[in-house]
Amino acid sequence: EVQLVESGGGLVQPGGSLRLSCAASGFTFSNFAMHWVRQAPGKGLEWVSVISGSGDNTYYGDSVKGRFTISRDNSKNTLYLQMNSLRAEDTAVYYCAKGTGGSCFSGHDYWGQGTLVTVSS
Amino acid sequence: DIVMTQSPDSLAVSLGERATIDCKSSQSVLYSSNNKNYLAWYQQKPGQPPKLLIYWASTRESGVPDRFSGSGSGTDFTLTISSLQAEDVAVYYCQQYYSIPFTFGPGTKVDIK
Is the preceding omega at residue B46 within 30 degrees of 0, hence cis? Predict the structure, then answer.
């Protein structure tokens, strides 16, 4: 059974940093691209970032480019999102999601339950 | 960036009746080299993460009831629920994964009439 468990969310001040983790199990982690998607309270879905299975390729949404860094440790079956220079508008539930294939250009077939990030003073 | 729009914003349908949601992309998401539309549909119920229903515009994800179907190509797509059930009350999103940044539609809320 595929499981994705996010952690690392919490309250952080504007300008601060946070690192999210997503522990994966139930599939061959290194074979699949992994995504981060966020959802602000009461709002729709916003795609944040993707990393290829090998970790060689990464892509970002416009609103986080230059501030967030996606990475993965295939030996630990774990996905990360380093978030720097956080803003109030980054407040959201952050989901990790498994790509449907090895390509970054894929849908998301499994999602974690999400971790809430609140940016506020 | 590719802008995704959905219509209607919300709809209420009687149990057993058909529900239809439209999704339009600001540019084609059809990749000519493999003739695939890079378009997915998700269902999200309150307090839950999204669930993949349809990918490649018309391929139903494993385990998804066959009352859900996707159609369309290029820039115009449709999600159809052929016979609405109570458990289908949710918000539905389309998403393009053709070009970075991947983008979602604003969502369509489906309720029971």
Answer: no
Amino acid in the structure at residue A16: G
CB proximity list for A26: less than 8 A, separation 6 or greater = A1, A2, A3
Nearest chain B Cα distance for residue A1, angstroms: 14
If you measure CA to CA, which chain A residue comes closest to B39? A107
Q: Strand pairing partners for B54? A: B41, B60
* A107–B contact, CB cutoff 8 A: yes
The whole-angstrom separation of Cα A38 and Cα A22 is 14
Query: Per-residue pLDDT tens for A70-105?
Result: 999 999 999 999 999 999 999 999 999 999 988 899
Q: For residues B65, B71, B76 and B79, what is the CA-based torsion angle, rounded to 10 degrees?
A: -20
Q: Which residues of chain A have pLDDT under 70?
A: none
Give CA–CA dist A69/A65, Å, rounded: 8
B64 and A CB contact within 8 Å = no
**How far is B4 from B104, CA to CA, in rounded Å?**
6
What residues have CB less than 8 Å from A16, skipping those under 6 apart?
A: A86, A119
Cα end-to-end span (Å), chain B: 36
